[in-house]
Each structure stands twice: as C-alpha cells, then as structure tokens.
Amino acid sequence: MQEYLENAKKTISSITKKAVKKSSEVYENTKISFKISGIKSDIEDEYVKIGRIVYQKYKGNDISTDDAESICAKIDSLFAEIEELNAQLAQNKNINVCPTCGAENLSGNTFCANCGEKL
C-alpha cells in the first residue's frame, strides 16, 4: 500500500510540474500576442498621423513628403518589431513559418505542408 501511495504521489507531482510548465508557456505566448496587438494599434495611430499631415498639406497647397517620411520610418520599425515577436512566438510554439506563403509548419519539416516550398 505504501508503494502505491508513493507511485501516486510521484505521478501527481509529475503532472503538476507539466501543468505549471505548460501554463507558463501559454502565459508567455499570450504576453507576446498582446504586445503584437499593441504594436498594431501603434501602427494604426501612425497611419492616422500620416493621413492628417497629407490632408493638411493638401488644404494648404503644400504637399511635401518630408513630414510623412519620419512616420513611415517609424511604421517600418514597428513592422520589424512585429516580425521579431512573431519569430519568437514561432520558436516558443516549436514551428517554422514558410517564407513564401506564411503557413506554420512543424519545426522538423523540410518542406512547407501548404505550398511545398523548401523551409
């Protein structure tokens, strides 16, 4: 009976450790996903700024791209940050993203399951 209780205790301990690890992974991935959403919102704000600048310049007959260039550069850097976060998410999920079609593939795949492109 003692041996049975010890085995049950070990099994419960193992299951608990796995659950804690999994919940930690889910938390980390959720945190990255929220960060990506926030960055996408920042990009939308920058789009609004560009639209406002272009419209104001249009109304004043002074259309220039200098003002919008810095905002476009910021948008590019935000998109680059999203790419880095997506790569981190893919690594956390143990997947490869196809460079051609963007499909998610298991990390061991040599070719994309969606389009057949070499990964």
Can you put this structure into words, describing what you see?
The termini are far apart. With 119 residues, the chain is mainly alpha-helical. Helices cover 71% and strands 5% of the residues. A hairpin with a 6-residue loop joins strand 1 and strand 2. The longest helix has 58 residues, at 2-59. Strands 1-2 form a two-stranded antiparallel sheet. It has helices spanning 2-59, 66-92; strands spanning 95-97, 104-106. The chain is built from 2 helices and 2 strands.
Fraction of helical residues: over 70%
Estimated share of beta-strand residues: 5-15%
Terminus-to-terminus distance: 54 Å
Structural class by secondary-structure content:
mainly alpha
Main sheet record: 2 strands, antiparallel
Give the ordered list of helices and strands. HHEE
